[in-house]
Amino acid sequence: MALSKYDIDEELVKWPGSSHTFMVELVGSNKRVLDVGCDTGYLGTVLQALGNRVSGFEVDPVTGEEAAKHLDRVVIGDLERTDLVEEFGAGSFDVVIFGDVLEHLRDPLPVLRQARPLLAPGGSVIISTPNIAHGDIRMALLQGKFDYTRVGILDDTHTRFFTRKTLVQFLTDAGFVLTELRRTQAELFETEVAIVESEIDPAVVAKLRGDPEATTYQFVLRAVPDDATRLDTEQALRIDDLSTELHSAKKELVALRAAFAELSEQEALARSELLSLQAVRTEVQRAHDQAVAERDEVRQQLRAANKRLASTSVTSRAVRSLRRKIRGY
Fold it and tell me: What gap in Å lies between CA 2 and CA 9, rounded to an integer?
């Protein structure tokens, strides 16, 4: 039984395209890592298998004690009232992870600012957070709904919400520069938000389908202190735009391939029907030719019969004439 609603199996951490997979990829290997909001340590365990040394911070004593069995060190406490530098020491980590954490805080900005002194030179923070601009949320608002759920974008413990724009501004305010941005995807009408497509104006759905923000479920990013000599935010956002365009192009390609396959199937069906019609036409023509031949044969038989009948009539007249002559003698 899971100790918390956020605890997941380690194998699911490696699920392609998930926020956890992206975080693992962004961390890499052989790093000193602080997993803030480490829960039971499931993410840290996967990172340790890659040669990383992982410490954790957790608010829940039950899950924190479980994490302590697996990670190098775990501190349990209130994140917004804890001095992380005092607990772990300045420059102690190459990576600090906030995996679906900041949106739960009343004021996440001071917490993120604490990560700066925790980082060693060349270090970075990795953040995962939901996208409040997902199309399902927007359609729910159009229906006057903003219903919290047990988990998901409107998790009932979320107090802060981000779009791409506000997330970038949030990083800037905390003294960080975005260097890489990734997205997890959830198609319209496929999230935990209960939206029924038939209840939404088709024009609204069409507009949302053309907006890449509408199918972005989570943002997963890497950011570095703004004094680092790395890619700046504008470049990172341009890369994200290009990646998003590529994702959209791939979706269009899949749709085109599906349409082509359907047209090919329809063409094959039409060809099959044409062959069947040609076979029927051939059979009808054969039957017609046979009927014409039989008609011609019947006509010949009728003509022969008429000739025989005419000949019989001539003979009968001759016989009657002869009889009359005999009677006359």
Answer: 9
**Band of pLDDT at residue 149, cut at 50, 70 and 90:** very high
The sign of the dihedral angle between the CA atoms of 286, 291, 294, 296 is: negative
Whole-number Cα distances in Å, 21 to 24, 54, 150, 152, 325: 5, 16, 23, 17, 127
Q: pLDDT tens for residues 168-218?
A: 999 999 999 999 999 999 999 999 998 999 999 999 999 999 999 999 999
Residue with tokens 């729910």: 140
Q: Are 138 and 110 in a shared domain?
A: yes
CA distance 101 to 160: 10
Q: How many domains does the chain have?
A: 2
Number of H helices and number of E strands within the chain? 10, 7
Same domain? For 128 and 178 the reply is: yes
Is 5 domain-assigned? no
Q: What is the pTM of this model?
A: 0.72
Per-residue confidence band for 317, with pLDDT thresholds at 50, 70 and 90: low
The strand pair at 93-99 and 119-130 is best described as parallel
Is the separation of the CB atoms in 133 and 213 below 8 Å? Answer: yes
The structure tokens 């890499």 sit at 28
